[in-house]
Every structure is written in C-alpha cells, then in structure tokens.
Hints:
Layout: H1 11-19, E1 28-29, E2 36-37, E3 48-49, E4 52-53
Amino acid sequence: MPGEPKRRHSKSRKRTRRAAIKLTAFFISCKNCGKPTRPHVVCINCGFYGGEAVRAEKVKVTKA
C-alpha cells in the first residue's frame, strides 16, 4: 500500500514531534472585577458571567 510508512518511527522522534503540541493557558480579564479568568467560564472571584450575576453567594458588583 502506498500510504503506509516504510519504517517505524522511534520513540524519541515521536516524543519530539509531540513536544511541540502543548496546551497553553489562555485567560481574559473579567468585565466586572478585572481579574484574569478562563473564557466561557463563570468568574471564580466575583461570580459574574457575561456581565450578569450567576452565582448569588459570591456577587460583589464593582462596576456600575
């Protein structure tokens, strides 16, 4: 079959290739408190998501 590799890739070659594929932490600033949070996740500091209070026990409005 023409699409198959001729030889097996070594462990070091495989690991070198996979070392470049890594996750990076990506953060945005919360619109309410300004602290860094993950996108599409409720802010753990103030409890806001998308400018609205979601978690009532942690709500503290800092911007009007």
